[in-house]
Design a protein that fits this description.
- By secondary structure, the chain is α+β, with helices and mostly antiparallel strands.
- The chain folds into 2 domains: 192 residues, Creatine Amidinohydrolase, Chain A, domain 1; 231 residues, Creatinase/methionine aminopeptidase superfamily (Creatine Amidinohydrolase), CATH 3.90.230.10.
- A hairpin with a 6-residue loop joins strand 2 and strand 3.
- It is globular and about 70 Å long.
Length: 432
């Protein structure tokens, strides 16, 4: 790992990062036990807050103010569910070495005081802003929040310094500025903090992937003529929640003539014999997400479908083969075809098809890998990064397309693939 990454790692327990890579990455059960060490959530919280403090210290800013629910969870280890993800109603403030302040939705603040002892009770506060414009700026809630934050910056000794904000409603930005606070991009601070995962985070990501392994087995058994895309989406949702998922964010189910170009959705289309079908399962366990594509054929396949799958597999394998610390993302992107080579006018239209993206509490963390951005702005890979690599190839006869995705953990001398449902060859479900 680079020298600049050492400080927060040393602040956490050794086992958080000094992993014996000769051992497999654990995929423990969801219950706790007294005879094995599984995920240590106290250690996980210490690691995440240490990473954030390190990133803030290196930023030159006085504080970071977060409205992004993933950043709030990273800093405070608090969550009130998928409901909050698009409301921009919760926020957290972290300054220097101080403990975080958290403003949560109504009674959730009282709940945290009772059940989240790692948060200081006087810093768990009820907060309310605009609910994406539903409450008018004139009501004064933005102004009141900004003035409270300005006062806390004085208390913490960072008044007059710029603060980083990740996302917010425009009236909140205006209110912070009116309170005399200089606002800068805080999302970069949080992405700096989150890009290197501890072993506890890696185990959670691996466990999340194992849930999707099992979901693909259920999909494969049910993928038959007469079943519809939406029915398999429903089946996958049930399987995932039964397995312990805390948020099924989205499932793509795409088949037959819908495969090319990729629509990134699902419909009520009925599967037919010989269809090529691909799925993407985006869900989380303890907040840690998956992005996990597989392509399966319904009963049989054509030579064109087999060729498309072999090509998509080749593109992903050559990328996996070079992943290790010190490699830069442009080296990976250059291994993938240019957009016109697989039917698209330019890299913007083809974005997300030959693609890599970091995974953690969010679906898209660092690094982002594609020909659109990586050739000019490459990022170096480090041990402890976790990201997904995904490729796409349409069938030459127009009857389907192949989509493959593997999640990888960067190790000292290469990477580990943690998405294990069979994918080396095109999987034929319920073969005739």
């Amino acid at each position: 790992m680079a020298t600049s990454e050492q400080s927060p790692i040393q602040a956490a327990d050794d086992m958080a990062t000094h992993w014996n890579w000769d051992r497999p990455i654990a995929s423990p059960g969801r219950m706790n036990v007294d005879f094995e060490e599984r995920v240590n959530f106290d250690r996980l919280r210490r690691y995440r807050i240490a990473r954030t403090r390190w990133a803030l210290e290196n930023s030159g800013l006085g504080a970071v103010l977060c409205f992004d629910t993933n950043n709030i969870r990273y800093i405070t280890s608090s969550v009130i569910g998928e409901w909050a993800r698009d409301k921009i109603c919760r926020y957290a403030l972290l300054t220097g070495t101080a403990e975080p302040y958290l403003w949560d939705f109504g009674s959730a603040a009282t709940h945290h005081r009772l059940f989240s002892p790692w948060l200081k009770p006087d810093r768990c506060r009820a907060g309310m802003l605009g609910l994406r414009g539903s409450v008018a700026e004139e009501a004064g809630l933005f102004r009141r929040a900004a003035e409270e934050i300005a006062q806390l910056l004085k208390v913490e000794g960072v008044a007059g310094m710029p603060i980083g904000v990740d996302i917010c409603e425009p009236p909140m930005m205006f209110a912070l500025q009116a309170a005399g606070i200089e606002v800068r991009d805080g999302q970069q601070i949080m992405l700096d903090a989150r890009q290197i995962k501890s072993m506890d985070e890696i185990v959670l990501l691996n466990t999340a992937a194992s849930m999707v392994d099992g979901t693909y087995q259920v999909i494969a058994e049910a993928l038959k003529p007469g079943v519809r895309e939406n029915e398999l989406v429903a089946l996958a949702n049930k399987q995932l929640y039964d397995a312990g998922s805390d948020d099924v964010e989205a499932i793509n189910a795409v088949a037959g003539e819908r495969c090319s170009p990729h629509p990134h959705n699902f419909t009520d289309r009925m599967y037919r014999p010989g269809d090529q079908a691909f799925f993407d399962v985006i869900q989380s366990y303890m907040g840690y997400r998956t992005c996990y594509y597989r392509t399966l054929n319904v009963g049989s396949s054509t030579p064109a479908q087999e060729d498309a799958y072999r090509q998509a597999r080749e593109w992903i394998d050559v990328a996996i083969d070079i992943v290790k610390p010190g490699v830069t993302t442009d080296q990976i992107a250059k291994l993938w075809p240019k957009a016109p080579e697989f039917g698209f006018a330019n890299e913007m239209e083809a974005f997300g098809l030959q693609f890599g993206h970091g995974l953690g509490l969010a679906l898209h963390e660092r690094p982002i890998i594609s020909r659109l951005n990586s050739l000019d702005y490459p990022v170096e890979l480090h041990e402890g990064m976790v990201f997904a690599l995904e490729t796409y190839c349409p069938a030459a006869d127009g009857n389907g397309a192949a989509r493959i995705e593997e999640e990888v953990v960067v190790t000292p001398d290469g990477c580990r693939v943690i998405t294990l449902f069979p994918s080396k060859e095109l999987f034929i479900a319920n073969q005739y």
